[in-house]
């Protein structure tokens, strides 16, 4: 373990108490969902009730399945206001669990409606389902949509997801948009709350239009507009060691790109063999309005090829994304903990943060400490403390006692954490043991597939 010399500490007054951005955004989503759940209940009641209780339950389940589907689209629309306050990792996780809610409510819709009509017709449930598909407009389309959702739900299970390449998983999930369109047309044709009143028709058109419009705006229109405006291109590819390279980019009007230290982009390098690959990499230097930099560790053939990218290559970048920024600070002082190549957003944050900072950089050996020279120089310039913690993963060098020794005032600091999942889980456990309040702990798991 090596430690940079301790610099004089500059004490700043604590920030004025304000509502935390993440709390505001979460509350907004909860209120949105609760308000729409109440609206759906009112529209359902106005549409009248069938005499068969199973059909009533089935119709209600279908309506809430449609609401959850629209809410699910909102969660992955990548709207900047939500993403900066909650983070893509948490929004993606909520999207995943909402997806299972969609699947179960729509399955309940089919089962209850089928058994309800079978009770009145005398048909067995299977023949009743076939009869509904043949005689009721939109039912066959709804069954196709449900089949697609079952497949998507299957590949979203963790056991299946671990065995599947991200590109394959993403391609399968594109069929969710087909399922949304099919389900919507079924609702138009057969939904009682949709057809029973002008208010119901207007509500559902507005809900679906808003959800699909948010997806189009956040995932298509905004990235196209930003890339057309900024026209990013590679200026240099600089090896940091045998396995890590830094890519420098420039473009037009980068001072108007709303990127902050700690955020990441989905980068597409527009070469013949890479244009179709979108990789999430964090900024490894705070944006200065003139250049951007990302630092990449080789983790397969795709990332290995970045070393061979030529200067002048055009880049299509989606973002910036992520809530791992100083926007969420609650204390004047900070502790930054990095593991391995997770140092990239930490190094950028150190450059941007005000107040006294302690940086703990965990690596297996000194040679793995990417960007350590830059961290040392930044720490000296900003009056920060820097600790390089080396050694094998076991024993845990960032156990509670060791963290408390390195940073005695840990509980009075914001903690920003980024590194490999096992290391992050261990450190989060240490922070909880040491009593660090949850609102002071900031981390982001850089995973697009939940």
UniProtKB/TrEMBL annotation:
* Needed co-factor(s): FAD
> Where's it mainly located?
membrane
Q: Does the keyword Iron apply?
A: yes
Keyword terms: 2Fe-2S, FAD, Flavoprotein, Iron, Iron-sulfur, Membrane, Metal-binding, Oxidoreductase, Transmembrane, Transmembrane helix
Query: How would you describe this protein's topology in the membrane?
Result: Multi-pass membrane protein
Per the UniProt record, which residue ranges are transmembrane? 27-47, 53-76, 97-118, 138-160, 172-190, 202-222
- Which residue ranges does the record assign to the FAD-binding FR-type domain? 227-327
Q: Where in the cell is it found?
A: Membrane
Q: Which InterPro entries match?
A: FAD-bd_FR_type (IPR017927), Fe3_Rdtase_TM_dom (IPR013130), FNR_nucleotide-bd (IPR039261), MRET (IPR050415), OxRdtase_FAD/NAD-bd (IPR001433), Riboflavin_synthase-like_b-brl (IPR017938)
In terms of Gene3D superfamilies, this protein maps to: Nucleotide-binding domain of ferredoxin-NADP reductase (FNR) module, Translation factors
Q: Which PANTHER family match?
A: 1,2-PHENYLACETYL-COA EPOXIDASE, SUBUNIT E, NADH OXIDOREDUCTASE HCR
- Write down what this protein is called: Ferric reductase
